[in-house]
Amino acid sequence: MDYVKAFLIGGLICALVQILMEKTRMLPGRIMVLLVCLGVALGALGIYAPFLDFAGAGASVPLCGFGYNLWVGVKDAINNEGFLGIFKGGFSACAIGISATLLAGFLAALIFKPKTKK
């Protein structure tokens, strides 16, 4: 049942973003920033943690989950290190995910031989 919830919640988030892309003139980059900021804001309000507990990967994989992860990292670093945690917390919390993404992209580029468009 966890897989079904993750699929449905993640699909709902993606469907809402697709509707936002088609019904507004917002560029994809701005929508991505909006999702990250939404995750941070919902995390700061205490709404995203219960949602994440319910939805699992359906809420942690989209970009709003990345924003929530940044929020948690900054909040923990501020509690542990004080003011400098504002600058270090986000990097510490998301370093593994970003590194894994870069490595996967590099390996995919090696395997599939990407070409530039002409």
Describe this structure in words.
This protein is mostly helical. It has one domain (2-112). It is 83% helix and 0% strand. The chain has 6 helices and no strands. It has helices spanning 2-23, 28-44, 48-55, 57-60, 63-81, 85-112. α2 (28-44) crosses α5 (63-81) and α5 (63-81) runs antiparallel to α6 (85-112). The protein is globular, with a radius of gyration of 17 Å. The N and C termini lie far apart (46 Å). The model has no long low-confidence stretch (mean pLDDT 89).
What is the average per-residue confidence, as pLDDT, rounded to a whole number?
89
Strand content: under 5%
Total discrete domains: 1
Rg calculated over all Cα atoms: 17 Å
Shape: globular
Number of strands: 0
Oligomeric organization of the protein chains: single chain
Helix content: over 70%
Order of helical and strand elements:
HHHHHH
**Head-to-tail CA distance between termini:** 46 Å
Name the structural class. Answer: mainly alpha
Determine the number of helices (DSSP H or I, runs of at least 4 residues).
6
Main β-sheet, in a few words? none
Name the poorly predicted regions. none
Describe, in short, the structure shown.
InterPro entries: SpoVA. The chain has 118 residues and is mainly α.
